[in-house]
Amino acid sequence: xxxxxxxxxxxxxAFSIVFVSAMQxxxxxxxxSSASSSSVNxxxxxxxxPGCPTKVGSSSSKSSIPPHCGNGMLNESxxxxxxxxxxxxxxxxxxxxxxxxxxxxxxTPYIAEECEPDSQEVYALDAQNKLIxxxxxxxxxxxxxxxxxxxxxxxxxxxxxxxxxxxxxxLIPAGSGSSSVVTSSVSSGSGTVSSTGSQTxxxxxEAADLCGNKKVDxxxxxxxxxxxxxxxxxxxxxxxxCGDAIIQxxxxxxxxxKTNDDSCTNLCKKPxCGDAILQSxxxxxxxxRxxxxxxxxxxxxxxxxxxxxxGHEQxxxxxYxxxxxxxxNCKLxxxxxxxxxxxxxxxxxxRSDFxxxxxxCKLxxxxxxxxxxxxxxxxxxKxxxxxxxxxCVLPQCGDxxxxxxxxxxxxxxxxxxxxSDSCMKPxCGDSxxxxxxxxxxxxxxxxxxxxxxxxxxxCGDKIVQxxxxxxxxxKxxxxxxxxxxxxxxxxxxxxxGKEQxxxxxxVNTDSCPNTCSLAVCGNGTVESGEQxxxxxxxxxxxxxxxxxxxxxxxxxxxxxxxxxxxAANSDQQxxxxxTSCKRAFCGDGVxxxxxxxxxxxxxxxxxxxxxxxxxxxxxIAGAIAAIFIIALSVGxxxxxxxxxxxxxxxxxxxxxxxxxxSLDDIPLDELEMPWHKWDK
Length: 680
Fold this sequence. Notes:
Blueprint: H1 3-24, H2 37-42, E1 118-125, E2 131-138, E3 144-146, E4 150-151, E5 157-158, E6 163-165, E7 178-187, E8 198-201, H3 612-615, H4 617-637, H5 639-648, H6 668-672
Antiparallel strand pairs: 1-2, 2-7, 3-6, 4-5, 7-8
């Protein structure tokens, strides 16, 4: 690392240390890393003294109740210190979910507190010489005192907050003061400092002005001469009363404040539903036990639909059905108020039974044997042809009900409709065109302009009339009789009847043959789009089942072919379908993807390259044979010399004679023409 890199590393380390140190300073707004001159001047002074720092985020405003306070679950992220659910305010947890403890400045009987010691916050220095805020508790030196809690180094305080009694205070000279020993301190900063200090009392007790001498002196309301604090006269010579932070006879609690909606009311009663005080968790509190007024006995506002009849509700069935016995307003339905509600079928606001709604708010029912509403009669049966119809109307022609003696009754006075004015049915052939008839010529001829069913003649009525060639009575245009009632003609350029096509010509080989039926492969006739037609569907006979000529190269895999890619068939391209419609194979002279060679001298029958030895085996074998023959010939020619060499090697005694023989010792004629000796 060079000098510049070392310098940069030192600067970065220094910056990191300064940054971390700055991030850790959160307790006071003023710098507290060392005891500056201003900090030293604040030590021992009450918190908030001019010129001294304050706590970060400190505020005098009353904290709000956390949103989920009271659900019995501790939510520290919302600022809760505790949560005892429905016991908040009557335990060591307040209604604001703050922990109550001895020394918090609030007398809490639920944690056995009788009093709160005098205390104040002062500035101090911790072990790191940083300025912090601590709480100092003090106790008196004589008479009745409130014992201060004892706090450990972690700021946890125990004991105290009970009345104690010291020897009676004697005569104290005015102005001399009385020491009040500080017993403990609790840090509210980043550390905890235990200290012992003192506070000067300016109270001067005259000998003739002592509380407890059974004499009501100046400033005293009473003096019973005892040390009983919860009787009619407290130990401070004050008359017992609600709000003095002392629980006396008849009081359930006494928190010493004037807050009426906390854990102890201003009447020194524990809060409860029905005390006429709206406390946390209550929606109303009218102070009575009437469950049918605006505020029921559970101090919850009445809710229509919760299944409980309370408040001004007359009923509550817990549903939102407005047409049952209890409507959605939780009021019992009233027949005659012009409002249909509950089980009412109607409500017209009157008591008449002869309109559309009876006096019981029921719709009139024809057939109940009670004449009501607009009924003319009601015989209580379902017989429509008697003296009272099923619509509770007296019978008459034209009432729409066919009664005895009537053939019909259409309820009108039109004579030429389906029912005459005399309630007789009309008939086709009576020369009167009535409802449902298209015509009525009064005769029985069915093939004229008006049929015997009083319908006008038309194509599709199943009657072949003048001008029609056929009439099958349907709307099917592709049968033997088209929808124009004309017999179909092949060649008129109109596809009709059973024709599949009609091009209007006599060309039998185009897209529409002269039979006006589409070409069919296999009918033995070569028609439009066909290359052949042998009259069968048998493949492999030269004409396929699709009437295409079967041949290699047509791009169709015909019987007997292994492949056929049409124009892509090739005898030179690797891996291609050959012109014989066979797949590429070893031995076709074309080196394909999975072949090393094909058709060369050094190529095996499996189209693999031969090795050098295998490719030149014959030549190598010939060379070896030639060498062997030459060696054998030489051996035969030199056999005597070779034998002589073997014999001479055995004569070791004469080293000079046993000298190695050489070619120089062999006669020239034996070397050049050894066969001259073969006959000897």
